[in-house]
Amino acid sequence: MIHLAEQIEAAVAAVRRHWKERPVAGIILGTGLGGFARHIERATHVNYGDIPNFPATTAAGHAGRLVCGTLDGRPVVAFQGRFHLYEGWSAEQASLPVRLLRGLDAETLIVSNAAGGLNPQYRVGDLMLIDDHINLMFANPLIGVNDDLLGPRFPDMCAPYDRQLQDVALQTALDHKFALHRGVYVSMLGPTYETRAEYRMCRTLGGDAVGMSTVPEVVAAVHAGMRIVGVSTITNVGTPDALDETDHDAVQTVAATAGEKLAAIVRAVVAAA
Ligand code: HPA
User: Is the Cβ–Cβ distance between 41 and 236 less than 8 Å?
Assistant: First the structure.
């Protein structure tokens, strides 16, 4: 088995062959949110297939490449496509993009995803700033021998999401006059959407939105000492007692229409990072 540090080194070297700048932030684009990458100027594309140890993405709505360039003049890297545990990747593999980003010297991670709303106040198309999370994947990217050069054995999780950058996101929503909830993201393994009983459980446990990603990446970013901002697009609502069918095409369409709101937040966070 190749050690994580060597995998990261090889991935960083591959990206460096195409792009030499130091990103101030990296953005992981969730389901239906890949369109954000068109805002990136002077873009250099690196396919995941050309990055050693990067899994090939298979989930619908995910392109599978890195878009390196500038956003309002500041160097950034956007990940069009992420690795999900439901595709069979381990939590460690799912967090490789974050390791790569840290290896490129970025200090800020912006994660986005599509999620089902649990809080009854949430409507389809709303955005939720992730204030905290509950890991119900029963997996963790830090399982195994710890590499002290990458981060501590027992990372503190009392505030994974950066307060200051959260305020920037909230102010952006006020300035642009759109609603930005702030809530708890629950991560499930998937790929099945939740049963009515599971939506009810996630709500009872304290969740405001539920999805199948993000937490492994956030855990690795905390381990790596990064500042983190997370945004969920509410693509469907999981009302347990009047549940409609959830379908992946609708999830992608709604996510794409919320894209401009997400773009405003990303721009502001990158400017402040
Ligand atoms: N559950 C889990 N993941 C999701 C959902 C959901 O309802 N909607 C979008 N991603």
Answer: no
Domain 4-272 matching CATH 3.40.50.1580: the answer reads yes
Residues lining ligand 1, judged by CB closer than 6 Å?
114-116, 188, 193-194, 210-212, 235-236, 238, 246, 251
- pLDDT tens digits, one per residue of 25-53: 999 998 777 788 899 999 999 999 899 98
Q: How far is residue 77's CA from residue 80's CA, in Å, rounded to a whole number?
A: 10
Q: Hey, whose CA ends up nearest to atom 7 of ligand 1?
A: 116
* Per-residue tokens: 69: 């360039």
Reported as a single tens digit per residue, the pLDDT across 186-210 is: 999 999 999 999 999 999 999 999 9
Tell me if the pTM is above 0.90. Answer: yes
Question: Could you identify the residue written with the tokens 């195409």?
Answer: 18
Residue 134 and residue 186: Cα distance in Å, rounded? Answer: 5
The values of phi and psi at residue 128, to 5°, are -125, 125
Domain boundaries, the chain: 4-272
Q: How many angstroms from the chain centroid is the CA of residue 24?
A: 16
Q: Ligand 1: which atom is nearest the Cα of residue 236?
A: 8
**CA–CA separation, 141 and 93 (whole Å):** 8
